[in-house]
From TrEMBL, chains A, B:
Pathway: Amine and polyamine metabolism; carnitine metabolism
Protein name: L-carnitine dehydrogenase
Keywords linked to the UniProt accession: Cytoplasm, NAD, Oxidoreductase
Disordered as annotated region, ranges: 332-365
Domain 3-hydroxyacyl-CoA dehydrogenase C-terminal positions: 187-253
GO biological process: carnitine metabolic process; fatty acid metabolic process
C-alpha cells in the first residue's frame, strides 16, 4: 500500500503525466502544476492509456482512483503534499527556478523527486535554500505507469534518510528502485542508452541499415534477452560451462579492435534528422502515436505477465514484481472506501513525516 | 518447411551446437565436425535444452528430429550437404583454414554461412579458392535455437543470389534474416552491444553500480521495451504527439554533453575481470549455468508466446514470427514420415541447387 497521502506533480509532459497516472491509479490524490494550456487534455490522454493497461493487469477491478486537481501555481500544488515529483524540461536554470519554488512552499518533511535523465542532484539542490537535503533524483522510464524501474540518486546535500524514504515511496507504487552508488551525470540507464543511441546514429548516417532494420535487429535478438536478464547475466550463461571468466577472456580482447565509432559524435544536423524522421515514417506511419502507445502498452503488460508466471509461479525479474504489484492493486481495490482508507492514510503520513523529519533533526543536531 | 536437405555444422561450441539444435529440431539431418573430444557431450547438453524449449513451443508434439552424425574431418562433414554453417573461434587464420577446407570439399552449389560476430566476409572469402561467391555471414544470437535474428552480410565476392538463397534457408528454419546493406566489421547488432558493453565496463570499474544493479536497471526498464520495439520506434512513441522530429530536437543536443565515457576503452586487466567475475558470482552463483539456461529459455519462450497473442492474435514482432514458426513445426510433426518427406526433400533440394547454380553460371557468363 502506498505510504503517500497526497502527491504533487510539477510538469505534465509525457513523463510527468506518466507519474500522475501511476499515482492516481494507486489511489493517491495528485495536484499538478503545468503552465501548458493543453496540459489537462494531454494528461487525460495519458490517463486513458494507463487506465486501459491497468484494467488488463487487474481484471477484477481497479482501486478507486486518486483525485486530480490542477493548481495555478507551484505553491498551490505543493503546499499540502508529502511527496513531489518534478518533471520539467532538462534545463538547469529551469530546474533551479522550479525547485526553489517547490522548496519554499512544500511542507518541510515532503520528499522531492526529480525525473531528470541526466542532471546531477548536487547541481540542482543548490537552488533549494530551505531543505536541499530532501532532494533525490527519481529517474523513471517511459511509460512511467508501466515500466517499474526508478533510478534513485542523491546529491552531496541529500540525507541518506531521504533516499530511504524515497525508496519506500517508489516501491509502494509498484516500482523497482535502484540506488546509484556514486553521483554521475546521466546515471546508469541513460549512459547505456546514450552509448547505443550514438552508435545507432552512425549506423543510420552511414547507410549500414535503416531505422526499421536496426529496430528489427534489436527486437528479434538481444531485446528479447534483456527483458529478462541484463547483459552480465546473459553473458555469464553465454560463457557456457566455463562461465563468466571464460566469457571475459574470450571477448575482452575484442575491445581493442577498431569496430565501433564511439569515439566520435555524429554531427547532429538537419540532414541526419531528416534521414531518421523519414525512415521512421516509413517504418511506423501506418499507426498513429496513440495506436503505437496502445500496442506498446499491450506488449509490455503481456511480457510482464508472461514473466510473472515463470520461476514456478513466483515470477522472474519484472514478472516477480508484477505479481506483487497486481496483488497489491487488487487488495487496494477490494478495500472498503472512506473510513478505513483515510485512517490508514493518516497513519502512513505520520510514518513518512517521522522519517522525513529525522534528517532535519540530524542536520540541526 | 525447410528447403535444406542435409546440413553441416563446423564447430560445436555454444553457437555451433545451437545451430545443430535448430536444424535437427526442424527435421534436418546434420553432420558436425568439431575436434574437441568433449564435443558430443556438449552438443547433447544443448540439444537437451533446445528439445525442452521446443516442447513448450509445440505442445502437440515435435517433428521427427534430423539425424546427427559426427564427422572425423571437415571433408567428411561437408561432402554431401547443401548448407554449411561455420562456427569456429574468431581468429582470421583459423577461419581461413576452415573455409578453404569447406570450399574444397563441399558440393559447388552448397551455401556457406559463417557465424562470425565481427569479421568481414570479404576478409574471409579470400581463402575460398573454388567458390568464394557462396559465402555469407549468417550471424545468429545465443541461444540460436530460440532467438530468431540472423544478420546476413555479403562480401565483395558474394553473389546477390547467394544472399537470396541464404535468406530463404534461414527463414525456412524459423529465423528472421536481416540483410546488412554495407559490409562493416561487427555488423549492426554487435556494434550496439559493444557500445553498451564498453559503457557498462566503465560503470562497474568506476563503482557506480554492481553488475547485478546494472542488470536490474536494464531488465526492469528498456530491456522490456526492446523485446517488442527497437529504439527508434520506442523514441517515436516517446516523442508523444509531436513524434520523431520532436524527440530528435529535444534529445539531440544531449549528444554534445560530456556524459558517456565512450571515447576511451577501459583497460581490460585482471583487476577488472576479477571485479566483474566476483560480482557476477554474487548475483548468480545460486544457480548453475544449466539452471540459468533453463530459466532463460523458459523466459524467452514465454515472452515470444506473449507477443504471439498480441495485435489481435496476429502477433507482434518476434511474436508474429513465433506464430508462423510454431505452426510450421506442428505441420511438419503431423506429416507422414518416410515417402512424402523424402519426395519433398528431393524437390526442395533441386530448387536450392537451381538457385545456387545461378550465381555460378552468371560468373562464367
Amino acid at each position: 500500500m502506498s505510504i503517500v497521502s497526497k502527491a504533487a506533480a510539477i510538469g505534465g509532459g509525457v513523463i510527468g503525466a506518466g507519474w500522475v497516472a501511476r499515482l492516481l491509479l494507486n489511489g493517491i490524490d495528485v495536484s499538478i502544476y503545468d503552465p501548458d494550456p493543453e496540459a489537462s487534455r494531454k494528461v487525460s490522454e495519458v490517463m486513458k492509456g494507463a487506465r486501459r493497461a491497468y484494467k488488463q493487469m487487474v481484471p477484477g477491478g481497479l482501486p478507486k482512483e486518486g483525485k486530480l486537481t490542477f493548481a495555478k501555481t507551484i505553491a498551490e500544488a505543493v503546499h499540502d503534499v508529502d511527496f513531489i515529483q518534478e518533471s520539467v524540461p532538462e534545463r538547469l536554470d529551469l530546474k533551479h527556478r522550479v525547485l526553489a519554488e517547490i522548496d519554499l512552499h512544500a511542507p518541510a518533511n515532503a520528499i522531492v523527486g526529480s525525473s531528470t535523465s541526466g542532471i546531477k542532484p548536487t547541481d540542482m539542490q543548490v537552488a533549494m535554500k530551505k531543505h536541499p537535503e530532501r532532494l533525490v533524483v527519481g529517474h523513471p522510464f517511459n511509460p512511467v505507469y508501466l515500466l517499474p524501474l526508478v533510478e534513485i540518486v542523491g546529491g552531496e546535500q541529500t540525507f541518506p534518510e531521504a533516499i530511504e524514504v524515497a525508496k519506500e515511496i517508489y516501491a509502494s507504487i509498484g516500482m523497482k528502485p535502484v540506488v546509484i552508488r556514486k553521483e554521475i551525470e546521466a546515471f546508469v540507464g541513460d549512459r547505456l542508452l546514450e552509448a547505443a543511441w550514438r552508435e545507432a546514429l552512425w549506423l543510420i548516417k552511414d547507410g549500414i541499415c535503416t531505422v526499421e532494420e536496426l529496430d528489427d535487429i534489436m527486437r528479434y535478438s538481444f531485446g528479447l534477452r534483456w527483458a529478462q536478464m541484463g547483459m552480465f547475466q546473459v553473458y555469464r550463461v553465454a560463457g557456457g560451462e566455463a562461465g563468466m571468466r571464460h566469457f571475459m577472456a574470450q571477448f575482452g580482447p575484442c575491445l581493442k579492435w577498431p569496430w565501433t565509432k564511439l569515439m566520435d559524435v555524429p554531427e547532429f544536423n538537419d540532414e541526419l534528422v531528416d534521414l531518421i524522421a523519414t525512415q521512421s515514417d516509413d517504418q511506423s506511419d501506418k499507426w498513429s502515436i496513440r495506436e503505437l502507445e496502445k500496442i506498446r502498452d499491450d506488449n509490455l503488460v503481456a511480457i510482464m505477465e508472461a514473466l510473472s508466471k515463470q520461476n514456478k509461479g513466483k515470477g522472474w525479474g519484472a514478472g516477480e514484481l508484477h505479481n506483487d504489484y497486481t496483488k497489491q492493486l487488487a487488495k487496494l481495490a477490494a478495500k472498503k472506501p472512506k473510513a478505513s482508507k483515510s485512517a490508514e492514510k493518516a497513519k502512513a503520513t505520520k510514518a513518512v513525516k517521522a522519517k522525513a523529519e529525522k534528517p532535519k533533526k540530524k542536520k540541526k543536531g
